[in-house]
């Protein structure tokens, strides 16, 4: 008697960690390695000064260019003159007069400072990715991390439970395959008379 192996159940839920890990790896490569390879810098916009042009929470990639190459309409990221800290702002260049650069926020209007085109290179925005920087922005970022942790924990628990179920199914399959199947016994009763073995004639004793 042959045993038909039970086909192993493929769990779609078990693939979730692999897909998530792959997505994370791709995101890390795109956000870390690629900008560095292209000579770009990464910044997260933390204010609404640029309105809908560059939304709060956007991730922007910039490239340093000389101030003399800036033109009206360019968006740059810089530390405001006279600022106490090193916090950067993102603004639009509205005019370049000689070596003086005037900036403004699309929502907040003209800035009170003037930048010099002769001092240092300016980080000009090349690419922006909306909403990607939200997990790093203030109080909202903390809530996003918290909300993301809840479904992530649920997925991990579900995956662990699914893996445990798979192990139990696999063990049961192996037990069925390795269990010995008893064959028919020689002294087992026959079900039908015509299946009775023929009696061999006995030799009669002679003197």
Task: Describe the 3D structure.
Strands 1, 2, 3, 4, 5, 6, 7 and 8 form an 8-stranded antiparallel β-sheet that branches. The chain has 2 helices and 8 strands; from the N terminus they run αββββββββα. The protein has helices spanning 16-37, 138-178; strands spanning 41-44, 59-65, 75-78, 89-97, 100-105, 109-110, 115-116, 122-129. By secondary structure, the chain is α+β, with helices and mostly antiparallel strands. The radius of gyration is 38 Å and the shape is elongated. The chain is 30% helix and 20% strand. The longest helix is centred in the C-terminal third of the chain and has 41 residues, at 138-178.
Offer a concise description of the structure.
The chain has helices at about 15-35, 140-180, and strands at about 40-45, 60-65, 75-80, 90-95, 100-105, 110, 115, 120-130. The protein is α+β, with helices and mostly antiparallel strands and about 210 residues long. It is elongated, with a radius of gyration of 38 Å.
